[in-house]
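Supplementary notes for students who missed Thursday's class. We covered one full example, reproduced here. Read the sequence, then the structure, then the short commentary at the end.
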Amino acid sequence: MALTRFQRAAAGVWTQSISRARRADWLAVAGEIVIVVIGILIAFQLDRWAEHWRRDQERLLYLERLAEESDRNLGALERLSLDYARVTGEVLGLIRASSDPARRAGVARLPEYGCGTLHLPAARLQTAVIDEVADAGSLELIPDPGLRYLLHSAAALARRGDRQLDYFRASFQRFGDPFDRYTIWRVDPASGALSCHVALDALNRDPGGASLLARIYRDRRRYAESIYEQIAAQRVLRDRARCLRTGTC
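Structure (token representation):
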């Protein structure tokens, strides 16, 4: 008896469901489903666009920072190169004056000429942006393979330059004792002003004087090559970052 009442109730529910389904507007239901699906797709697309826009802004900011850092490094290296070339030219002048009495007299009248012979200046390069290339996440900001190569090249040259600076400074320390004895420094008791000159006549009388100057000049030219390589690398890196940022490559 109970089962019969349950069967009747179930049959009634099924009949009502069939009746409502027959009266339902399936076209409207399908339209609502389509609207929902389109809304979801638009939301996904907008999210993708926002992510692309964010990555593009990060890439442009990275390129801007890279160009600014490279430009600062380039300026520092060029100033270093000018000062370094001036002193290296003075060393060459000492070599020429050693065999020419008239030149020796002219050099003797120049204040502090050749007194920086053993000085090796260095530029403090900024590498914070370049070092970011080692971060896997930052690699996504550098889709250009040419720029990646330039970044690795500039970083490698900077490390090589540091090693060469240490090497040549150690080399110049060996030249220090034999050359310093001919570098005469004086202080004016009245004004306290410092003055310096290289005693070329005495240096010229030293049997090893000519060879000493030649070795110093040789090493200064070798170190200059490292400076020029870094200048070229920083200039190309800066120009590449700028053209990628402006889209003119």
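Commentary. The mean pLDDT is 84. The chain has one domain: 22-246. If anything here is unclear, bring it to office hours.
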